[in-house]
Every structure is written in structure tokens, then in C-alpha cells.
């Protein structure tokens, strides 16, 4: 039937306390109806369900009752050994839950209102009235005062001594026959760290490991005694096979109500009273004399467990501090050795090495330079500290330096010597960073490449100049474009004179003018001029005449362009002019002027001069930052091909 029907009847009851026991599959679904979100709440109600809302209940074959009801009846008939005179519902539930779990049967569920679970419910049939405490002095047993036992915990010199003092205190001070201290390892498992009261088991068990899963299972079984955990021998099915190492004390006689040899009492130790961070577990044997646990003895055990937890935490802290001090001293020794090695390498390096500042306001300033760099630049160390590398770099090489990535890179640049001359160097950088505070400083390596660069420039000059016209060749044109087109943004609102702040680059301190499409800022126009029918000159008059015509056309191109404008010969019969900072109108006007200058008749040959008139075709394109030089030249050549094809 729907649980709503049952709840309606419960609401009509005038009883202050109501107990509902549901033994059926999915019975915990009733919690949703009886939850805080229900339209009508039934206060003072304890709901006990046989199975979770997604689990079935069990009716074992051959048993007269269902699994849940059978265990509930057994608990009520037998009672709870060492329990109070009256059992509350929470104790009944805990006992019932542990018995079902031990037999691998469905776990029960509960829902309680107004702390009804703590109210007396039934008389405990296993209750035995506590007998007056015997005169310990007459029996020869002199238990120590609690403060004396606790003091021993805090005076131990090491973690191992602390753990042994905990075990010894439980035996000699609290009056248990046997005690084992299990300590949580870094991997979560528990190791037997100390044993007292059972000398035979000590060498066998000390150092043995118990899996954390098995311990968690044990600490969730049995009866919860306000911070302690008791598992009766009747509920301990399967614990002998879970791999947890433990020691038991043999008892010669067992009076009624006595401690059974296979009973287990655990005292979990946590980092604090409010924490669930387990640091260890004390496993205790039976009391020495009456073999019963009264309220006073349990309270003493709880207090002792708390102090034991604090003592273990303190001992671990001391141990960690000692290890940290040892590691710190070793690290300092290694650091001193490392610093000395770095100093030796730095000072005696055959190439120049410098350390520069990376902090705002002092970015790029030389903090330290080795002898090789000082000799290379002819400057003593006392004066090197006055400079940043940007103060020493040739103005024409500043853009090359700006192209270096902030995290490090390599470039060939010129540095100023003390006497005013320049030296070519291979300049490479790397950042030494602190992950917490950001970059600390920049290590700069400087190698003298003057001789190598002189040879490279000589070869580059030969390759970059056309021997017929004296203009740049296509390789020389590529070098020019590489130096004047940066990889940065060239469109949108970023396409303007962009100031690169010192925070963006370790050497940045000057403006860079982007090359952008016309109408958006500084432009770089590519005017490609093709000589029509030039092949006929070579075919009719020979290659010498053709070279004479090309040289004359090159002179006309130079005369038609402004001072500083770059002109190059590309291909056999084409010229390319780079016009900086011109708009579409001026670029078109320059192209027409070039075309007109080249169209005038040319005379060659002596004494019979030959006049040749050649027409031209021009196309206009643009080179932009953020785009490669290959694309700029390819676009220009493609447009010329399309123009000639169109006729």
C-alpha cells in the first residue's frame, strides 16, 4: 500500500512518540514522504526500514522470519552485552546494522525526528548491574593516576617512544591486559607500531600492515560508544580473514557477563575532536580484573585517547621539523656549492655573459657582466652597470632585438664599444624565473661574430646586387621585407603606430610602425613594372644589347623614384619598387611616372645607334605586418601574371 496511508494514521495518533518498522523491499522510499520537504511532518517519529530505496529485502529460505525481522527479534531477545540497562532505538539500530552487515545481508535504514533515537526503548536483557569496585591496593594492582599516564605521553623523545608510551599507558595505567597501537601511514594503510601486554605477539605483529579499507569496515561495525567502537565476538564474522593484524589475550576463566576473548574494542585517534582525519587506532584487550567496562573506565579511555592523539600529532610535528631542518641544511649546502659553481662558470666563461634586471623600471639594466664581455666592449665592470643593453645596441638593430620573444631567443646585432666602434655579436637570452613571483632576471650570452659577419655581409652584398642594373636582386628584396615586416597585428584598431611597453618585452622601449593597408596608417606599396616584348630585343640584337637596355631602364627607374625608395630587378624583365608611407593616389601616380619614363625610346649601338621603344605594364599591391614577405611577393607576381594575361 502507499506509505501515505500509513502516515495519515500516524498523524491522527495522540502519542508523543511513534515508531514505524517497515520490512519490505525498497522500504526506505518512505523517507521521501516522511522528509523535511513533506507537506505534513510527523514529529517525534522514528522510521526503521529493512532496505534502501533501491534495494530489495531478503527472506532466507528455511528461516522462519525475514532477514531484517529475524535479526531485530534476536537483538531484542538477547540484548546488548556491556550495554546500559535500557536500550535506545539508535543502539538497537547500530546493533542490528552490524549483525546484518556481518552476515552480508541488506543494511537497514533509519529516519529520526526530535532525537527520539536517544530515548529509552526496551530493557536490555544482557544488562548486568555494575559491582562495587574492589580494593585495588589489596589485590596488588596500583593503577596510575590519569595525569601521570598522560604526562608520560608528552615527555617521550620521539614518535616511536610516544607510540610505545601510549600502548604501555593503556596497560599499566588504564588496566587493560593488552593494547596495540596502529598508525596511519602516508599511503592510508595502518601499520602495527607498538604493542604492550603481549610479549609473544610483539615481534610477530610489529610492522605488519592492515589495509585501510578493512579498518574502515571495522570502525563502521559493532556498537558506537561515543567515540569508541565495540565489536562483540558474535558480530565479528569474517574479521579473521580481512588481513588486519591483531593480538588476543587468552583468558583462563570467563564468568557470566565477562569479556569474550574474541571481543574487540577500538579507540580511533583523530587530529582533533572535530576532525575526521584518522591518525591511528588503539586496539584494546579485556580489563585486567573484573573484565567489564563501566562508565568511568570508558570515560577514562576516551580522555586518554584524546591525549594520545595530541601526543602523536606533536611527535609527528617534531619529527617533521627535525627532518625539515636536516633537509634545509642539506639544501643550503647544495645551494652554496651551486652558487660557487655558477660563479666559477660565469667568471671564467670564454664568451660574454651578463645578468640583467627583469623588474619594471629597471628592465634590461645590466646587473653583472663577466670579464670576457667587459673586454669585448672595452668597458670596465664599474661602468657596465650604468647601461642597459638597449643603450649599447646599434639603432638599425633595435627592431631585430624587439623581435626576440620575452622568454628568450637569439639574434645577431651590433654593440657599441667604449671607443665608439661597433662589434657584431650573437646575442641570446634566457629567463631565470620564479614560479611564485614571476621572472627574476635575464641571462644574456654574447659571442663575438665580427669576422664571421664580415664574410657574410660581403657574400650578402654580392648576392643582393644585380650586376647588370645595380639594383637589388630578389634575395636582397626579401631581406629588406623581412626587416620591415613584423609578425604583429596589422588589421583592426591595432593597425596604427603601436608603442610596445617595457612590460611586454625585455628590451622594448621604442615605437614600431606597423605596415598596414592604405587608409589605416603607415603603408608599404609594391609597384611591379613589367617590360613588354623585352624578349624581342634579346632575339634581334643579342644579350649584350638586352643588358644595355636593362641598365638604361634601371637608371630611369632610379631617377623617377624619391630618394630612399627601394628598387629591385625581379625576374628577367620586371622591376619592383617599394614605396613607403604612400596612399593609393600617390602610389598610382608613381607607377604611372615609372611607366612613362620607361616608355621613352632607348638608343644603343655605335656608330649606328638603334632606337627601341618598349611598353610597360604595372600592378600595385601592398605589404602588411602580420603577413609574410613570401605572400607579399607572391601577390605582386600573381597580379602581374593576371594583368598580362588579360592583355
How much helical structure, as a percent, in the residues?
25-40%
What structural class do you assign from the helix and strand content? alpha+beta
| Number of helices, counting only DSSP H or I runs of 4 residues or more | 20
Name the beta content range: 15-25%
Principal-axis shape equals: elongated
Number of strands: 25
Query: How widely separated are the two ends?
Result: 95 Å
What do these coordinates show?
With 647 residues, the chain is α+β, with helices and mostly antiparallel strands. The chain is built from 20 helices and 25 strands. The strands form seven sheets. It has a seven-stranded antiparallel sheet with strand order 8-7-6-12-11-10-9. Strand 15 (408-416) and strand 16 (422-434) form a beta hairpin. The protein is elongated.
Amino acid at each position: 500500500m502507499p506509505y501515505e496511508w500509513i502516515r495519515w494514521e500516524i498523524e491522527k495518533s495522540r502519542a508523543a512518540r511513534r515508531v514505524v518498522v517497515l520490512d519490505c523491499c525498497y522500504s526506505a522510499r518512505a523517507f521521501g514522504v516522511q522528509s523535511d520537504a513533506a507537506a505534513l511532518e510527523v514529529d517525534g517519529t522514528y522510521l526503521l526500514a529493512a532496505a534502501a530505496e533501491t534495494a530489495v529485502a531478503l527472506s532466507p529460505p528455511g528461516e522462519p522470519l525475514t532477514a531484517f525481522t529475524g535479526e531485530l527479534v534476536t537483538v531484542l531477545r538477547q540484548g546488548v552485552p556491556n550495554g546500559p540497562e535500557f536500550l535506545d532505538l539508535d543502539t538497537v539500530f547500530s546493533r542490528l546494522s552490524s549483525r546484518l552487515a556481518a552476515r552480508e545481508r541488506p543494511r537497514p535504514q533509519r529516519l529520526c525526528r526530535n532525537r527520539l533515537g536517544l530515548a529509552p526503548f526496551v530493557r536490555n536483557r544482557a544488562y548486568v548491574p555494575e559491582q562495587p569496585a574492589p580494593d585495588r591496593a589489596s589485590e596488588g594492582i596500583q593503577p596510575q593516576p590519569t595525569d601521570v599516564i598522560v604526562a608520560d605521553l608528552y615527555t617521550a623523545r620521539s614518535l616511536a617512544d610516544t607510540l610505545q608510551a601510549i600502548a604501555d599507558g593503556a596497560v599499566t595505567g588504564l588496566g587493560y591486559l593488552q593494547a596495540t597501537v596502529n598508525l596511519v601511514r602516508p599511503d592510508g594503510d595502518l601499520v602495527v607500531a607498538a604493542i604492550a601486554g603481549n610479549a609473544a605477539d610483539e615481534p610477530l605483529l610489529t610492522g605488519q600492515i592492515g589495509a585501510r579499507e578493512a579498518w574502515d569496515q571495522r570502525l563502521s561495525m559493532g556498537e558506537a560508544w561515543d567515540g569508541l567502537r565495540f565489536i562483540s565476538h558474535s558480530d565479528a564474522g569474517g574479521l579473521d580473514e580481512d588481513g588486519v593484524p591483531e593480538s588476543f589475550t587468552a583468558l583462563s576463566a570467563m564468568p557470566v557477563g565477562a569479556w569474550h576473548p574474541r571481543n574487540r574494542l577500538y579507540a580511533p585517534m583523530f587530529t582533533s575532536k572535530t576532525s575526521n582525519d584518522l591518525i591511528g587506532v588503539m586496539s584494546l584487550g579485556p580489563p585486567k580484573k573484573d573484565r567489564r567496562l563501566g562508565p568511568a573506565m570508558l570515560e577514562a579511555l576516551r580522555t586518554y585517547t584524546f591525549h594520545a592523539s595530541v601526543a602523536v600529532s606533536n611527535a609527528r610535528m617534531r619529527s617533521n621539523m627535525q627532518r625539515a631542518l636536516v633537509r634545509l641544511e642539506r639544501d643550503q649546502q647544495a645551494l652554496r656549492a651551486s652558487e660557487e659553481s655558477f660563479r666559477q662558470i660565469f667568471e671564467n666563461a670564454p664568451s660574454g655573459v651578463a645578468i640583467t634586471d627583469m623588474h619594471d623600471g629597471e628592465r634590461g639594466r645590466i646587473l653583472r657582466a663577466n670579464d670576457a664581455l667587459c673586454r669585448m666592449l672595452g668597458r670596465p665592470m664599474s661602468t657596465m652597470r650604468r647601461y642597459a643593453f638597449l643603450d649599447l645596441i646599434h639603432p638599425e638593430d633595435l627592431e631585430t632585438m624587439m623581435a626576440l620573444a620575452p622568454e628568450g631567443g637569439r639574434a645577431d646585432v651590433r654593440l657599441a664599444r667604449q671607443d665608439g666602434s661597433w662589434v657584431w655579436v650573437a646575442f641570446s637570452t634566457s629567463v631565470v624565473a620564479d614560479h611564485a613571483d614571476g621572472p627574476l632576471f635575464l641571462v644574456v650570452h654574447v659571442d663575438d661574430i665580427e669576422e664571421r659577419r664580415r664574410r657574410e655581409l660581403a657574400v650578402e652584398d654580392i648576392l643582393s646586387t644585380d650586376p647588370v642594373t645595380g639594383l637589388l636582386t630578389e634575395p636582397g628584396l626579401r631581406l629588406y621585407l623581412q626587416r620591415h615586416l613584423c609578425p604583429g597585428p596589422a588589421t583592426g584598431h591595432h593597425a596604427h603606430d603601436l608603442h610596445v611597453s617595457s612590460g611586454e618585452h625585455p628590451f622594448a622601449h621604442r615605437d614600431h610602425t606597423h605596415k598596414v593597408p592604405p587608409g589605416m596608417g603607415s603603408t608599404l606599396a609594391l609597384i611591379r613594372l613589367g617590360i613588354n616584348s623585352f624578349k624581342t630585343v634579346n632575339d634581334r640584337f643579342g644579350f649584350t644589347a638586352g643588358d644595355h637596355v636593362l641598365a638604361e631602364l634601371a637608371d630611369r627607374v632610379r631617377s623617377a623614384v624619391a630618394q630612399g625608395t627601394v628598387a629591385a630587378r625581379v625576374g628577367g624583365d620586371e622591376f619592383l619598387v617599394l614605396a613607403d608611407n604612400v596612399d593609393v593616389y600617390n602610389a598610382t601616380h608613381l607607377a604611372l611616372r615609372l611607366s612613362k619614363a620607361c616608355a621613352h625610346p632607348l638608343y644603343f649601338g655605335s656608330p649606328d645607334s638603334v632606337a627601341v621603344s618598349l611598353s610597360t605594364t604595372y600592378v600595385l599591391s601592398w605589404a602588411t605586418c602580420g603577413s609574410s614577405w613570401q605572400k607579399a611577393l607572391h601577390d605582386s607576381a600573381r597580379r602581374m601574371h593576371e594583368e598580362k594575361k588579360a592583355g
